[in-house]
């Protein structure tokens, strides 16, 4: 068992002593029971800041997915346009495909 020192206001100290006397136990055991109960309670999201941060994170992920889907869509369109044309067989010579692949629009952030 570890030892810890806790500083409390006089009012709280008096209340802890009263509870200890009512239960015929020590103040240390009362404090231990209070801390144990608090730590073992299931945590609930009850702060708007936490909810806001999680929503922002989800929004960022959705935006990344949307950008990547759009790039995939453009690549699929170019592939469909190139299908069967020997003039576009070399991907290094395909101007449209190179424009899509080399576009600096931060799709892969």
What does it look like?
- With 109 residues, the protein is mostly helical.
- The protein has helices at 10-22, 27-40, 48-82, 95-101.
Strand and helix map with partners:
Elements: H1 10-22, H2 27-40, H3 48-82, H4 95-101
Helix pairs in contact: 1-2, 3-4
What is the structure about, briefly put?
With 109 residues, the protein is mainly α. Helices cover 63% and strands 0% of the residues.
**Number of DSSP E strands:** 0
Number of helical regions: 4
Give the N-terminus to C-terminus distance in angstroms: 49 Å
Rg from alpha-carbon coordinates: 32 Å
Q: Tell me, what's the shape? A: rod-shaped
* Secondary-structure element pattern, one letter each: HHHH
Q: How is the main sheet built?
A: none
The quaternary organization reads as single chain
Sheet/helix structural class? mainly alpha
* Percentage of residues in DSSP E strands: under 5%
Mean pLDDT equals 80
Low-confidence stretches: none
Range of helix content: 55-70%
Spell out the key features of this protein.
109 residues, 63% helix, mainly alpha
